[in-house]
Amino acid sequence: AGEKSPLDQARQSFEKSKKSLKSDLKKCTAFVKKIKSGSYHTPTELNSPNNPIRTLNLTRYVEEVAAALTEPQTKVKQSDIPGMVMLCVEMHRRYETFAKALVPTLLAGVSGGRG
Fold first, then answer.
1. What percentage of the chain exceeds 70 in pLDDT?
2. What is the mean pLDDT of the chain?
3. What count of other Cβ atoms lies within 10 Å of the Cβ of residue 19?
4. What does the alpha-carbon distance between residue 61 and residue 101 come to, in Å, rounded to a whole number?
5. What is the pLDDT of residue 56?
6. Up-side HSE of residue 75: CA atoms within 13 Å toward CB?
7. DSSP per residue over 3-55, as a string?
8. How far is 33 from 35, CA to CA, in rounded Å?
9. 73 DSSP 8-state letter
10. What span, in angstroms and rounded, lies between the C-alpha atoms of 44 and 38?
11. Contact 52, 31 (CB under 8 A)
12. Per-residue pLDDT, 115
């Protein structure tokens, strides 16, 4: 009963490696702005070891990333969806607060209200 789930294991591993990631304000805000502008990475790009999701410490930007994904400034193309989903998976895998930031806005969008 004491075994950790794969998600817990991934988060624990991320917490250990987080100190080695860049917390550079300029790079983190550029990453968030890119998402807000509707420029999404493909799943292949997100899996790249040099992708910002793997090199940046986005702890302070979790809510901004969630908001950028749920309220894009441009129309989302069908070809963007796999990258958006993969970004959600990667953010959720790393940041425990991501789902809490994302889900209410998604539900509000589905029900027609605003989050």
1. 96
2. 89
3. 8
4. 11
5. 96
6. 2
7. PPPHHHHHHHHHHHHGGGSB--HHHHHHHHHHHHTT----HHHHHSTTSHHHH
8. 5
9. S
10. 17
11. yes
12. 45
